[in-house]
Amino acid sequence: MKALTYEQAMEQFDPVFGIEVHVELNTATKMFCGCANEFGAEPNTQVCPVCLGLPGAMPVTNEKAVESAIRLGLSLGCEIRESSRFARKNYFYPDLAKDYQISQYDEPTCFEGSLDVVLDDGEVFTVGIERAHMEEDAGKNTHKGGTGGIQGADYSLVDYNRGGVPLVEIVTKPITGAGARTAEVARAYVATIRDIVKALDISDGRMEQGSVRADVNLSLRPKAAAGEDQDAVPFGKRSETKNVNSLRAIERAIHHEASRQAGLLLAGKPVVQETRHWHEDTGSTTPGRSKEEAEDYRYFPEPDLLPVEPSREWVEELRGTLPEHPAKMRARLKEEWGFSDTDMRDAVNADALSLIADTVAAGAAPQSARKWWMGELARTANDREVALAELPVTPADVAELQGLVDAGTINDKLARQALEGVLAGEGSPREVVESRGLEVVSDDSALEAAVDEALAAQPDVLAKIQDGKVQAAGAIVGAVMKATRGQADAGRVREIILQRAGVEG
After folding, report:
1. Is 118 helix (H, G, I), strand (E, B) or coil?
2. What is the secondary structure of 161-175 as a DSSP string?
């Protein structure tokens, strides 16, 4: 079978895609029981008879989870159903202890919405939302042996801590018309969802921990003939790439699947409707299971839970709590901060926008905040292979650091040393500056002595300055900075040098 590039696949076929985004809610307890909802606990320590599905255990709906789901639905432009029910979705997996998942089926709480996403060049693409329904998460399988994936593993371990964690699953309608920008639209859509849930403060949005993850459906259909309506061409068979947990991986998964499916179709082979596993290391997918239809899950109403019936008054009260839409916020901040399109795009792509905003709120100038987060801190995060937000430094720390620079207490070079100390856990920027003795030397007597010593070592420089070659003062400034380990006030040093030469600056 001939391998095609993504671009070649897009030239040959019209893509149709859809995305199911799973958002773990940050409620204190699980969806239907009182177990703690916390990431990182020892395996199987946050479980009880309810989330393990033991006989006789009775679930109770988490009101805070319902509130979060409704606020999310409203942010997605959804209608809120006056009465909705939970259902049992029956299937066997080792990470579902009770052999069914409590979810919503034909009566989701949130339905019929839409979301505008902004692409890198500013184009707005509207994605239709079919539903945003509540459900409980499954546990987590860890596969041992082989490459760490399910295929080739020697055995698997199951951690039920995640079982029962509140989820909202957001399901798009089939998305058409994106063409070669399909992967870009998919990435922007998931990024916007992540930004919304973080702004709502209903999830930490950390994709690397699974707080937000996506299942990506993709199919290819022939391009319409001249004069034919593309919408009249039937959809092709779709694949569903499961649990993609980074924005980059979403793009890569679509690139791979489009290329794979195009190769099959051009070779006259069928595309199998199935789930597929994503492999980050190879940028490829492998078959999972044949894709079930709804009837295969044998949905039926959950008999142990009452319907969810939010009052209109409560829904409108929740509507009043919604934050500014991320796209509108970016446009506003871009204008307020004076950022270029590139500045704003890079900050968004680096997950630095909220960090910059919080640093500005703490007192730093926008460009200074951007400089630290997109410069020194971005390099550190890259070296440590962690997200920016995972670094042991806060926006308040960065604002304090820049404040010390603005006050002349330290210069940029010393500020980088102070930042190293903060990242090493030595304290706040001010504490590190004090403990390491990083303050700028601005005492004239000390600076004058250092200048005189440097001039004595390079007597020809003074004559050059007096002859009008003022730029020669740089050699003495450099010598003084070296002698003071970068702690001299460079501006004041230059002034003293020119005074010694009898030249006005």
Report:
1. strand
2. GGTT-EEEEEEEPPB
Residue 444 has pLDDT above 60, yes or no: no
Amino acid at residue number 34:
G
CA atoms within 13 A on the CB side of 454: 26
Residues in the chain: 505
More confident residue, 446 or 175: 175
Q: Which stretches does DSSP call E strand in 69-188?
A: 79-80, 87-90, 100-103, 110-118, 124-136, 140-144, 155-159, 166-172
100-103 vs 87-90, strand pairing mode: antiparallel
Average confidence (pLDDT) over 115-136: 92
Q: List C-alpha distances in Å: 3 to 182, 258, 280.
A: 19, 11, 19
- 482 or 154: which carries more pLDDT confidence? 154
CATH, domain range 444-501: 1.10.10.410
Domain layout of the chain by residue ranges? 6-297, 324-436, 444-501
**pTM, rounded to two decimals:** 0.79
222: enclosing H helix or E strand: strand 212-222
Question: CA distances (Å), 112 to each of 136, 199, 217, 244, 460, in order?
Answer: 22, 22, 19, 24, 80
Say if residues 167 and 153 touch (Cβ distance below 8 Å). no
**132 token code pair:** 């945003």
At 381, which helix (H) or strand (E)? helix 376-384
Give the whole-angstrom CA distance, residue 161 versus residue 40: 9
Q: Which residues pair with 436 in a beta bridge?
A: none
Q: State yes or no: pLDDT of 463 exceeds 80.
A: no
